[in-house]
Amino acid sequence: MASSSRDLTQGSINRALYSLAGPMMFGIIAVISVSIIDTYFVGKLGTTELTALSFTFPVTMAVTSIAIGLGAGAASVVSRAVGAGNAEDAKRLTTDSLVLAMIIVSALSISGFLSVRYVFALMGAEGEVLDMIVRYMRIWYVAMPFLVIPMVANAALRAIGDAFWPSLIMIGSAFINMALTPLLIFGWGPIPGFNIEGAAYGTFAAQIFTTIFAIWLIAVREHMIAWVKPPLQELVHSWQRVLTVGIPAALGNAVNPVGVAIITSILAGFGDPTVAAFGVASRIEAFAAIPMLALSSAIGPISGQSWGKGNVQRVIHALKQSYLACFIWSLLLAVVLAVFAGPLVAMFAPDPSVAAEAKRYLMIVPITLWGYGCVIVAAGCYNSLGKSVSGLGFYLVRTALLYVPLSIAASMLAGSEAVYIAISISNALAGLMCTFLSLRWLKHQKLVIS
Known about the structure:
The protein is mainly α. It has helices at 13-43, 47-83, 87-122, 127-142, 145-159, 164-186, 197-221, 232-268, 272-288, 290-309, 312-348, 352-364, 369-384, 388-413, 416-443. The longest helix has 37 residues, at 47-83.
């Protein structure tokens, strides 16, 4: 591997965390801005189009979560190999992870394309809204390989301690999307407007750029591709190592979008404006959670390399610092949104009823967003240790044990505001439980076997 790889098993933990999280924060801002931009311009088309896009959010996030899970599997085994000083094993695992991702994503793309109408009808979409969703998602599924492959490549780059180039890729992709999305939605000169499908085409073009750049980085600049074909037994063993982490990690990352899909179905009973408002608020919330998402990405390489070297105390310290950062950020966020939630939602929701509902959500939920941050940080840490079943458990505590049951109960007793309160309570309880469980287990570990 290239000399740009970093030893994260020594030195200041805070410096290591923030040197990785800083670039990743800008990269994640770029990625989430794609969703924000799509929401903004599709909202200009009307409430029907915005409702259609809101329905797609849980499904696109669930599919993206599978890619994140595959990336987590690759990053986990690669970072532990780097920590143990085995560069050749890291290269072999990176290559085999990319091959595995290509096989899986091809199957998902085809099945998603063929089942799109049935899936969204099951979620409660119908009529013109369902027709719009089908047109949008068929383009999205064709573009899916160009989403997954660079995500796995970027995860391998972060595993060797390089957060700068993966972030640069994400930022470049976002700028392409920003330029093309309004052009393809509304048209300009000889270029026709494609309505909601234009948002999907803009994302597709940006992802092609991302794929080319990511493959160049990992193959040419970092020399992390093993060009010799491995024996079948070795290939299968690599896949098993990746999937041992990747499958639970993918399921864990998919848990939250599935929960959001269920809440979307619940809120559909209160009318299209409520669904549209939830879609707007969810995207703003995702943008607000960026620093915590960056920490969940940063803690993986540090924990994985430290675990591979046998340094448990460094993992514990990194986890504690990340939890503290999540709590401080959530408090600051709640103050900012208390002042600016109204003007912010008005940018994305011209309909006053939609804007009012989105503001109601943002005045209730973000104060406990630290709990969600603790969950994703704990899961990111445990995935990197090869303990992704525990990482899945952290997600299930929040979503299956708290988020969905409490929201369903709240919807039966009262209106949408009660659902938002239930979400807020779920975040807080999940954060406390996952913080306690994650630190308790690590404190009893005496020896790490890489």
